[in-house]
Amino acid sequence: MGHLVTDSVRLPINPYLSHDAGVASYNTALGVPTPFEFDGVRTEERSWKTTAYLHAGLNPADPFRLSGPDALRLLEESCVNDFSVFRVGGAKHAVMCAESGNVIADGVIMRIGEEEFNCFFLNPVLRYLVESGGYDVTLEDLSHELFLFQVGGPRSLEILERATATDLHSLRFLRHTPTSIDTSEGPVEVRAFRFGVAGTLAYEVHGPLASAPAVYDALVAAGQDLGLVRLGLRAYGMNHTQNGYVQAFIHFLPAWTDDPDLMAFLDGDADQFLTQLPGSAGPDASKRFGTPFDFGWGDLVTFNHDFTGRAALEQAVQGRRPVTLAWNRDDVVAVVASQFDDHPADHLDLYAEPIWTASNSVVVGDDVLRGDDVVGISSGRIFSPSERQMLSLAILDSTHATLGTQLEVLWGAPGTPQRRIRATVAPFPHLALTRNPDVSTAPIPRPTPRRSSDA
Question: Where are the beta strands (DSSP E) in 233-384?
Fold first, then answer.
């Protein structure tokens, strides 16, 4: 009896996770096979409300170390943020703008030393600024050195303290501290950071890439009896919409085309992010641009220093703001039912739009209408199983952003059988839990520590 032998198709190795035969599907947009779902989106979507999740899907997190005598000056001159108080052990949600005032990058900056900063998701703008000259700095790519895991949800602190055997109750929001995690390979030095997009208490764990799978397994073990859920990339995109975090390449596009010198630096590499833009808003990338005020980040804008875009933001009319839209159930069902018609509406994936693909950004942008007037743009549509609602975020003219306002989302690309879906302005953020900065850790049980953190 003969045997047929074939070469199996092998995905590139994911250096951040141990192999898991239970993962049904992967996303490869970030260059490594990233789990798309673990235990199903219904289970994963409940995690940040009731227990906690562990997410590794942001790796590689575009990590770069910026250092040198001019590092802080570069950040001050390129970010809207206030850097007058920025101590070692602190971090900021950094926002960079073009001269137009539109956002061209946002991410996280962690101060590691007096002249040393770890930066995440600020490229390609950060590389452009460094390579354009004018600053005595060094920029080091940490993609092959550093991992980033998220642990988010009401029980995240208990899980992290159990894994580190450290009392982290005093770790404040946007603060980070060195600690270690005992793994199957021995103790691993990591950095615990109180930050995340769970919409409630959340942390990140940063550490050496070589130890990433061992640390991930140790965190899974620490949360096994505390309800820890492993989060896939699909549900990760859902929590940004539900929890009110406007996210680049999910809800908006960075306005790279507003800076001709940046576009010249990119030399065509931006094309994949600025083309093939689906949704009724059409292929005009600029409809997906916005200022920090449009995205609800006005509190980050400080005029106590000169920065790129300051003049435009000083004159900006704060006429738009982010809201949540709750879509009408009957209208959504009608779009799904139209798939059985001769002229169906565009396909509507039940749970969420794809948030990234290997070929483009997939910012699905839909016009928001009041009557025949376009009053904003909707993106990041998701279905929340726990709330039994279809939701999206929208950037709306403020006059139409009042809670309860009745609007319509135009569904379907131009030239297709488009449908109007009724939508109501709902609370933003839609998740009604205490936000991370305001969560008191005092009622949470403390571990028996081998050390404590006073960061």
Answer: 320-327, 366-370, 373-384
Do β-strands 451-452 and 166-167 pair in parallel, antiparallel, or remain unpaired?
parallel
8 A C-beta contact, residue 87 and residue 140: no
Does 361 have pLDDT greater than 70?
no
Give phi and psi for 102, each to the nearest 5. Answer: -75, 145
Q: How far is CA 88 from the centre of its chain?
A: 24
> Could you tell me the pLDDT band of residue 4, with boundaries at 50, 70 and 90?
very low
Task: Identify whether 124 is preceded by a cis peptide bond (ω within 30 of 0).
Answer: yes
∠62-64-66 over CA atoms, to 5°? 155
The helix-helix angle for 233-242 and 41-50 (nearest 10°) equals: 50
Residue with tokens 């000259």: 133
- Determine phi and psi for 309, rounding to 5 degrees: 95, 0
DSSP state, 361? -
Q: 223 pairs with which residues across the strands?
A: none
According to DSSP, residue 439 is labeled -
- % of the chain surpassing 70 pLDDT: 93
Single-letter amino acid code for the residue at 398: S
**End-to-end CA separation in angstroms for the chain:** 68
> pTM, whole model, 2 decimals?
0.92
